[in-house]
Structures are given as structure tokens and as C-alpha cells.
Design goal:
alpha/beta; Rossmann fold
């Protein structure tokens, strides 16, 4: 498994490299946004640790480009602590967010969690294809397509949310429950984070299905998929 660490601060890259290699992963490093994109074209990467403020192309610009055709797990780093900055990063397609200064062990734990979700899915239900509404959800392949055969590119977290709701039809999950079951960690502001990912999930489904509203909001309670 190979992790790309991207930060214009070389000391941060070197520090994370030490911890990541100690866990048996291979490491690539990049120091500007364009170099990140070049590395991704040249090398197979399993997870990206990406700083928000990067030269040439910012981290947010890089994420937007990556998400055009890839569900690569992305953890963003930033010195900014305001909620609005976190939401911007997640809105652009990042899977998780860590604020500087950080504990390298926390970053490593978040990365390992993202990679597990990406490789094996995010719920504990039995494997197999699931058809619900206009969608076919293939857990083993971690893929979603419409009944007409149009593939929908989802991030690991978007897939996790969809699979959780689809395997529990008609049940309403609060934002807190979704965060705990899909992210598998606690957060001070899970509702905002979940809201962003559900919004992206809906947009992708509606675009692929001609406007089908699969994920429903139960106002003041949470989200569900009806059987």
C-alpha cells in the first residue's frame, strides 16, 4: 500500500514519512499541487494526505480535479480551524480533515481507517449486490450503478452512507448515527460533515438517474431510503 504525502513544508512530509513507513506502508512525497497530480498519474497511490495551502495548485483545487474521475481516499491537513474551512474541504470531495498542529499518530490512524473503508466497505452487513429503487449497489466491488448500467463514482464515505441506508430501508438515521457507523469515530460537529457528504451523494444519484430522489430527509431527525 502506497501513501502520497503532499505538503509544501518538507519537515512535515519527512515526519509523516517516518510514522507511515513504521507501519509498513510505502511513501511518496510532493511539495506542490501540480506535483501531486503528476504523481497520481505516474504512480499507483492508495491514499493521499494533502495540505490545503499548496503552491501552484491549492489542495482544494487538487481535490476537485481528482474527484472528476477518482474515489481515492483523501485526508486534508490545514492550519485553519474554522468550521467553514472544514466544510469547504469536505465539499470539494475530501474524506476527512485534520487541523495543524497535529499528532502524527492521529493522522496515521485516520489514514488507516480511510484505507480500510475504501478496500472493504464501511458496514458490517453481508456481502452481495443490493437493488433498491433505480440503483444497484455492489458491495464486493464497492461500486454503484443505475439499473440502466450507468456507473456512479462515489467516494468511500459516500458509498458507506448509501450502503448503510440501503441495507436498513425505511429506518431513519440521525447525522450522529451515520457519522459513528460510517466514519467510525467521534466528532464535535458530525451533523455538518454528514450533511455535506449526503448532499454530494444526492447530487450524483440525481444526475445519473434523471432526478430520482433516493435519499430522503426527515426534517429534524435524519436521513433514510424508503423500500
Amino acid at each position: 500500500m502506497r501513501i502520497l504525502v503532499a505538503d509544501d513544508d518538507k519537515e512535515i512530509c519527512d515526519l509523516l514519512e517516518i510514522y507511515i513507513k513504521n507501519e509498513g506502508f510505502e511513501v511518496e512525497k510532493a511539495y506542490d499541487g501540480q506535483q501531486v497530480l503528476d504523481k497520481l498519474r505516474e504512480t499507483e497511490i492508495d491514499c493521499l494526505i494533502l495540505d490545503v495551502m499548496m503552491p501552484k495548485k491549492t489542495g482544494l483545487e487538487v481535490v476537485k480535479e481528482i474527484r472528476q474521475d477518482s474515489a481515492l481516499p483523501i485526508l486534508m491537513l490545514s492550519a485553519k480551524t474554522a468550521d467553514v474551512d472544514k466544510i469547504r474541504g469536505l465539499t470539494n470531495g475530501a474524506d476527512d480533515y485534520v487541523v495543524k498542529p497535529f499528532n502524527p499518530l492521529e493522522v496515521l490512524a485516520r489514514v488507516k481507517s480511510l484505507m480500510r473503508r475504501s478496500a472493504y466497505g464501511t458496514t458490517e452487513s453481508e456481502a452481495g449486490d443490493l437493488e433498491i429503487g433505480p440503483l444497484i449497489i455492489r458491495k464486493d466491488q464497492h461500486q454503484v450503478e443505475t439499473v440502466d448500467g450507468v456507473e456512479i463514482q462515489l467516494t468511500a464515505l459516500e458509498f458507506g452512507i448509501l450502503h448503510l441506508l440501503a441495507t436498513n430501508p425505511n429506518r431513519v438515521f440521525s447525522a450522529d448515527e451515520i457519522f459513528e457507523k460510517v466514519w467510525k469515530q467521534e466528532s464535535l460537529v458530525p451533523a455538518k460533515t454528514v450533511m455535506v457528504h449526503v448532499s454530494h451523494l444526492r447530487d450524483k444519484i440525481e444526475k445519473a438517474t434523471g432526478g430520482e430522489k433516493v435519499v430522503k430527509t426527515v426534517w429534524g431527525v435524519g436521513y433514510k431510503i424508503e423500500n
